[in-house]
């Protein structure tokens, strides 16, 4: 990856984060988890996935499924930047007149499947990957999982079956931001050693710095998807990445900011200042 390419990806990630901040007003969003997976999503849509607005219905397209659907503002931002939906449409976030809403909805171009209830889309992705293989298609299916989501037993059922059926065009990515809602994962149900657990289920497992484009490029450039085994990439991330005023704060997992606070956060994203926030965090849904 050239320096120019890396800069372009980082600038795209900054624009996606700006979209996320703007969507954290007028009702709010799960901003912490949205910011933690923003770099991974940008990398995938710019450099890895064979999908575009022109091929959104092509049978041989790659598929991305956002199983941790509460961080969909990051996906909306990416889809807007890639031209699947208009940037102007992001202003409709949480409007009853649009489907740009709390969780992914297939009515939005580029969204492949509904999610919100956690623990389901690895099974869905496994089925889509198996279908593609049976049809002889080159489709790769990528499923983004939350680390807290791994407490859902259905995730591990999918891991068992994907391994048993040797579904090697399936890639799970764990957004390992070390938080589940407003508590650290290791304080609730410890996940480590995580890679060893996936390997015990017959998966290939690797770690990557989920905020470094060069590391992401090395990781996904080296992926072997013809091994007879599914793959998991554990992306080490920080919740709220990009905004020091909320980063790693348990009480900033869901936020509904005032327009003035959002403006301060946009400045903070640009490195101009650190926002002072007074809005109460809402514990909802
Ligand atoms: Mg998490």
Explain what you see.
With 285 residues, the protein is an alpha/beta fold. It has a single domain, classed as 3-Layer(aba) Sandwich (Rossmann fold). 36% of the residues lie in helices and 12% in strands. It is built from 10 helices and 7 strands. The chain has helices at residues 3-22, 31-36, 38-48, 72-81, 121-134, 153-164, 185-188, 194-200, 213-221, 259-269, and strands spanning 63-66, 141-146, 170-176, 179-180, 183-184, 204-209, 231-236. Strands 1-2-3-7-6 form a 5-stranded parallel β-sheet, sandwiched between helices. It has a two-stranded antiparallel ribbon with strand order 4-5. The longest helix has 20 residues, at 3-22. The protein is globular. The mean pLDDT is 94. Magnesium ion is lined by residues 146-148, 177, 179-180.
Task: Please write out the topology.
Blueprint: H1 3-22, H2 31-36, H3 38-48, E1 63-66, H4 72-81, H5 121-134, E2 141-146, H6 153-164, E3 170-176, E4 179-180, E5 183-184, H7 185-188, H8 194-200, E6 204-209, H9 213-221, E7 231-236, H10 259-269
Parallel strand pairs: 1-2, 2-3, 3-7, 6-7
Antiparallel strand pairs: 4-5
Helix pairs in contact: 1-3, 1-4, 1-10, 3-9, 5-6
Tertiary shape: globular
Q: Major β-sheet, in short? A: 5 strands, parallel
CATH homologous superfamily title: Thiamin diphosphate (ThDP)-binding fold, Pyr/PP domains
Mean pLDDT: 94
| Helix and strand run | HHHEHHEHEEEHHEHEH
Q: Helical percent range?
A: 25-40%
Strand order of the largest sheet: 1-2-3-7-6
CATH architecture: 3-Layer(aba) Sandwich
Number of beta-strand segments? 7
């Amino acid at each position: 990856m050239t320096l120019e390419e890396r800069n372009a990806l980082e600038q795209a990630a900054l624009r996606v984060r700006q979209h996320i901040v703007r969507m954290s007003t007028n009702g709010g969003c799960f901003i912490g988890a949205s910011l933690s997976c923003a770099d991974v999503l940008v990398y995938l849509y710019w450099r890895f996935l064979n999908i575009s607005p022109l091929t959104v219905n092509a049978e041989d397209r790659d598929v991305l499924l956002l199983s941790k659907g509460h961080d969909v503002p990051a996906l909306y931002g990416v889809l807007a930047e890639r031209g699947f939906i208009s940037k102007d449409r992001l202003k409709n976030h949480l409007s009853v007149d649009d489907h740009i809403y709390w969780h992914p909805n297939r009515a939005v171009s580029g969204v492949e499947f509904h999610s919100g209830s956690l623990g389901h889309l690895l099974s869905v992705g496994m089925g889509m990957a198996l279908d593609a293989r049976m049809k002889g298609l080159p489709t790769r299916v990528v499923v983004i999982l939350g680390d807290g989501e791994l407490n859902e037993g259905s995730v591990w059922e999918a891991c068992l079956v994907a391994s048993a059926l040797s579904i090697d065009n399936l890639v799970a990515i764990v957004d390992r931001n070390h938080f589940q809602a407003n508590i650290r994962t290791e304080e609730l149900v410890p996940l480590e050693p995580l890679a060893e657990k996936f390997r015990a289920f017959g998966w290939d497992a690797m770690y990557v710095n989920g905020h470094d484009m060069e590391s992401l490029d090395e990781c996904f450039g080296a992926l072997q998807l013809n091994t007879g085994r599914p793959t998991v990439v554990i992306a080490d991330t920080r919740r709220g990445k990009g905004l020091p005023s909320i980063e790693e704060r348990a009480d900033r997992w869901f936020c509904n900011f005032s327009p003035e606070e959002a403006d301060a956060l946009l400045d903070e994203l640009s490195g101009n200042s650190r926002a002072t926030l007074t809005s109460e965090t809402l514990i909802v849904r």
